[in-house]
Amino acid sequence: MAEEATELTESTTVAVIGAGPAGLTVAALLRSSGIDCVVLERQTREYVAQRQRAGIVETRAVRMFDSWGLADRVLGGAPHDGILDIRVDGESHLVSDNDGSEGPTAVLCPQQVLVQKLTATYLADGGDLRFEAADVSLHHLTGDRPTVRYRTPDGTLRTLTCDFVAGCDGDHGISRSAVPDGVLTAHAFDHGIGWLTVLADAPPPAHPLLAVSPDGFAAHFPRGPYSSRYYLQCPPEDHPGAWPDTRVWDALRIRLGDPVLTAGPITDREIFRLRSLVHDPMQYGRLYLVGDAAHIVSPMGGKGMNLALYDADLFARAVRDSVRDHDDTALRTYSQRCLRRVWSDQEFSHWLTRTLHDAGDDTRSGPFHRSLARARLDRLFTLPSAARTFAELMTGVDP
Ligand code: APR
């Protein structure tokens, strides 16, 4: 009862749950439209700012920020030259991921740079961002004014009433679990493949590099002027401890077909499973799921963060239409429009995942699938229409 006495109630237009790429983009876009929102994030600012995951903001997402007048403020890192190196058994094939359309193109912007810049932009514009918000819970989602309850770091219970809730709290957040059982359908797929991911202070490759080899898939991506992320296919149940530095560098040199690859201090080492998950619909009452809270896409093709940015853009535009013009059409079609893009990206990522793994080690997929995958790669390297489709899918720009 003493707790109830300290409860404070506030009101806003949009309550945004989670300050990852999705939540911060929603918040920055709403703020730039003059729409009130409050962001509640469970972690500290320092924790959120250092989480290293995705590394490429695709062309479509760069143009999205550009259309809001925010590209210069929220994007950092080096421009991407539009070339990918797909190396098969040590032989490089340079593939363009630039579809030739007009406008700014993809940037090599590590996720933590995007998150730090979005945070700074939102706060500089007077945004309300509350870190270390504990025990967030959602109520009355199908009513006119949903309620969000949470605790401040000093234990005070707070209540926010709002018009809309943006559930941007990732795959393990509370937003999706606030939806009653049976409302959402989950479509899940596990590739049965693990990736060891390694971050190291070592020179970046000339181009983002994806490598097929009989020992399994490997990749090498830039993460800064003297920083790289590497991936090595491994059994999903492997433990990072089974991959000491020498084993990592030996495996990379063999699979990348680069015996003189420069090593460097390894700063992070994790193993994860390649999996995909889609929740349909992405809406329940006045709750809208954005980013990983609604879908996970396996990392091949770099679509995870970019899909989150796509959802965030559609949601912010839909809220703007509703608040400014009293037009709810885009809110009503939000889920359907997002899911169309989600399934397109799932298909592309699935295709690329299968192709680059099956083309290498045939102990898992068998020689028939290995030959199919190699035929697909051959088509990509030799057929201009196949190369163009690949570039269009990489840029993410709507035809
Ligand atoms: N209350 C408040 N915040 C929460 C809660 C909660 N109960 N649970 C999670 N969060 C916060 C997390 O701490 C995190 O900061 O929500 C945020 C979710 O961020 P992400 O998991 O990065 O999800 P999203 O913003 O959708 O990012 C999408 O970016 O990280 C890449 O590859 C990743 O595909 C992903 C993409």
List the helices and strands and how they pair.
Elements: H1 2-5, E1 8-11, E2 14-17, H2 21-32, E3 37-40, H3 45-50, H4 59-67, H5 71-74, E4 78-79, E5 83-88, E6 91-96, E7 107-108, H6 111-124, E8 128-130, E9 134-139, E10 147-151, E11 157-161, E12 164-167, E13 185-200, E14 209-212, E15 218-224, E16 227-234, H7 245-256, E17 266-280, E18 283-284, E19 287-289, E20 295-296, H8 304-325, H9 329-358, H10 362-382, H11 384-395
Parallel strand pairs: 1-11, 2-3, 2-12, 3-8, 5-14, 12-19
Antiparallel strand pairs: 4-7, 5-6, 9-10, 10-11, 13-16, 13-17, 14-15, 15-16, 17-20, 18-19
Residues 17-23, 40-43, 48, 53-54, 111, 133, 136, 168-170, 173-174, 291-292, 304-305, 308 line the site of adenosine-5-diphosphoribose.
Q: How would you describe the overall organization of this protein?
A:
The chain has helices at residues 2-5, 21-32, 45-50, 59-67, 71-74, 111-124, 245-256, 304-325, 329-358, 362-382, 384-395, and strands at residues 8-11, 14-17, 37-40, 78-79, 83-88, 91-96, 107-108, 128-130, 134-139, 147-151, 157-161, 164-167, 185-200, 209-212, 218-224, 227-234, 266-280, 283-284, 287-289, 295-296. It has eleven helices and 20 strands. Mean pLDDT is 94; it is low at 1-5. It folds into two domains: 8-81 and 104-186 and 276-349, FAD/NAD(P)-binding domain; 187-275 and 360-395, D-Amino Acid Oxidase, subunit A, domain 2 (D-Amino Acid Oxidase, Chain A, domain 2, 2-Layer Sandwich), CATH 3.30.9. The strands form four sheets. An eight-stranded mixed β-sheet has the order 6-5-14-15-16-13-17-20. Helix 9 (329-358) crosses helix 10. The longest helix is centred in the C-terminal third of the chain and has 30 residues, at 329-358. The chain has 399 residues and is α/β, with parallel strands linked by helices. The chain starts with a helix and ends with a helix. It binds adenosine-5-diphosphoribose (APR). Residues 17-23, 40-43, 48, 53-54, 111, 133, 136, 168-170, 173-174, 291-292, 304-305, 308 line the site of adenosine-5-diphosphoribose.
